[in-house]
Amino acid sequence: MSRILIVEDDDDIAQLVHRYLTRAGHIADVVRAGDEAMELVRERVPDLIILDLMLPGLDGLEVCRALRAAPATRALPIIMLTARSEESDRVVGLQLGADDYVTKPFSPNELVARVGALLRRAQRWAESGESTLKFGSIELDRERHLVSDGDRSVRLTAKEFLLLEYLLQHRGRVLSRDLLLTDVWGYRYTGGTRTVDVHVRRLREKLPLLADALETVKQFGYRLIPPGDLRVEEADPGTAGVRR
Questions:
Q1: In contact, 70 and 25? CB cutoff 8 Å
Q2: Which of 37, 137, 184, 225 is in Cβ range 3.0-4.6 Å of 7 for a Cys bridge?
Q3: What is the C-alpha radius of gyration for the chain, rounded to an integer number of angstroms?
């Protein structure tokens, strides 16, 4: 049973989220201000925080920044829940270390599904004991939410980061698009599995190593081929190609 901290100054929304989370089997606490949230976290670190941006006193961005700066809460899953829908607000929140971003109005069931996905991710992280995942020249720092390719820093969106993390954790396995939607997006995406293909294409563009290593399994999904399984052979005199 997981303990969730809801930081929301709108009583109706706070009680709605609380009701759906408790129905899903979680323990949920509610506070109305950023200062109260920080005080409660110092007493007992929750398993996940749902954090509004517009709060009295210490706002959500400041709370997120403080949590990410403290060793005890650096890896604490954070979902930002806010009426701010502008891209600049989302980018700032994600750059500060939020794991997901939900805008109002929202589906309570979808929010609960996203909570479950982040808790599963945190559990896998705790079980693996690894803060950094490496794949050839690619390095993913889970704690600082950074990705690099050799000496080059690579900027990924939140979902691209989560998808890459999942692929690195399950390298060598054939992963269906439906499984990726469920485990990475945390819910059944109503727009269909095309969104997975779009995010895979962006990862291949941003990380050239994946152009060869991330194999498309026709009409099913994808497989990240471990570096040792990639075979390079001469296709023609003076040229080389990668065989998967």
A1: no
A2: 37
A3: 20
Given a contact cutoff of 8 angstroms between Cβ atoms, the answer to whether 118 and 100 are in contact is yes
Three-state secondary structure call for residue 146:
strand
Structural domains in the chain, CATH included, are 3-126 (3.40.50.2300), 130-231 (1.10.10.10)
Q: What is the rounded CA–CA span in Å between residue 60 and residue 120?
A: 24
d(CA 213, CA 210): 5
Q: Is residue 29 exposed (0-12), middle (13-18) or buried (19+ Cβ within 10 Å)?
A: middle
Put the strands of the sheet holding 3-7 in their side by side order. Answer: 27-31, 3-7, 48-52, 78-82, 100-103
Per-residue pLDDT of the chain (244 residues; tens, 9 = 90+): 899 999 999 999 999 999 999 999 999 999 999 999 999 999 999 999 999 988 988 998 899 889 988 878 887 889 988 776 555 666 666 666 778 888 888 889 989 988 998 888 777 666 665 678 899 999 998 777 789 999 999 998 878 888 998 899 888 889 998 888 877 876 544 556 788 899 999 999 999 999 999 999 988 899 999 876 655 443 344 433 443 4
Q: What 8-state DSSP symbol labels residue 190?
A: T
Q: CB within 8 A of 69, min separation 6: which ones?
A: none
What is this structure's pTM?
A: 0.61
Secondary structure (3-state) at 45: coil
Compute the distance between CA of residue 240 and CA of residue 233 in angstroms, rounded to an integer.
6
